[in-house]
């Protein structure tokens, strides 16, 4: 059973999500909060598997709340909920440690699937979402460093290739097919990339790849699922 906490300042939104999710046999809403500060407190107390986090809230916004949860090392995956698919705060929430984001008007089955995805330890960035969100993020953000991060030198050429494909939004299966290797081998490469770079998940790997020139914002190649 996957336990959930819903953090949103609108009571009707929380009630709607609770109704939808409680009907899923493997999901259980164990708590709610109406602002980020309360959300951090509830997450500390209940330690849910997944936290659904709104961005724009009073007292403490979802960005700051996500950062506090991640920095505290709380064992929950944060799934950011937003009204706009290019909300500027989403970029910073991903950098703060969120495991992905989803539009509030997503169908019930998509919400449930997203929760299961992040609960399993995967990040939620579909190919199209990866391209739009990260490209926009990179264009708005100032360069994080004057040159590529030294950690890149720790990667083998194949791991750099995997990082580039991952950054374009390809799944493990897509990467495996692209490189003519097994999905298990791809998972090993991805795990090695995250470990060597000291990153939490695929979301951070995507941002790292763009910030360090492994891929270029707006670049499209045959590796991109939308190519052609």
Automatic annotation (TrEMBL):
InterPro entries documented for this protein: CheY-like_superfamily, NreC/VraR/RcsB-like_REC, Sig_transdc_resp-reg_C-effctor, Sig_transdc_resp-reg_receiver, Tscrpt_reg_LuxR_C, WalR-like
One Pfam family cited in the UniProt record for this chain: Response_reg
SMART domains in alphabetical order: HTH_LUXR, REC
Keyword Lipid metabolism: no
GO molecular function, one term: DNA binding
Organismal lineage: Bacteria, Bacillati, Actinomycetota, Actinomycetes, Propionibacteriales
Keywords from the named record: DNA-binding, Phosphoprotein, Transcription, Transcription regulation
Source superkingdom: Bacteria
Residue positions, PTM 4-aspartylphosphate: 54
Domain HTH luxR-type stretches: 148-213
Domain Response regulatory: 3-119
Entry-linked PROSITE patterns: HTH_LUXR_2, RESPONSE_REGULATORY
GO biological-process terms attached to the record: phosphorelay signal transduction system; regulation of DNA-templated transcription
Matching SUPFAM superfamilies: C-terminal effector domain of the bipartite response regulators, CheY-like
Protein name: Response regulator transcription factor
């Amino acid at each position: 059973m996957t336990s959930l906490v819903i953090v949103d300042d609108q009571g009707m939104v929380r009630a709607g999500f609770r109704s939808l999710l409680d009907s899923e046999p493997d999901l259980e809403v164990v708590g709610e909060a109406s602002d980020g500060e309360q959300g951090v407190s509830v997450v500390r107390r209940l330690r849910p598997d997944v936290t659904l986090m709104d961005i724009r809230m009073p007292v403490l916004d979802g960005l700051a709340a996500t950062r506090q949860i991640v920095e505290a090392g709380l064992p929950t995956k944060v799934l950011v909920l937003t009204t706009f698919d290019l909300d500027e705060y989403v970029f910073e929430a991903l950098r703060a440690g969120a495991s992905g984001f989803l539009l509030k008007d997503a169908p019930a089955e998509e919400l449930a699937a997203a929760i299961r995805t992040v609960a399993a330890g995967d990040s939620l960035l579909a190919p199209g979402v990866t391209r739009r969100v990260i490209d926009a993020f990179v264009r708005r953000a100032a360069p994080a460093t004057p040159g590529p991060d030294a950690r890149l030198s720790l990667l083998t050429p194949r791991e750099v290739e995997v990082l580039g494909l991952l950054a374009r939004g390809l799944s493990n299966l897509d990467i495996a097919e692209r490189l003519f290797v097994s999905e298990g081998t791809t998972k090993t490469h991805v795990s090695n990339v995250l470990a060597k770079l000291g990153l939490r998940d695929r979301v951070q790997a995507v941002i790292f790849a763009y910030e360090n020139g492994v891929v270029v914002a707006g670049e499209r190649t045959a590796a991109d699922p939308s190519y052609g």
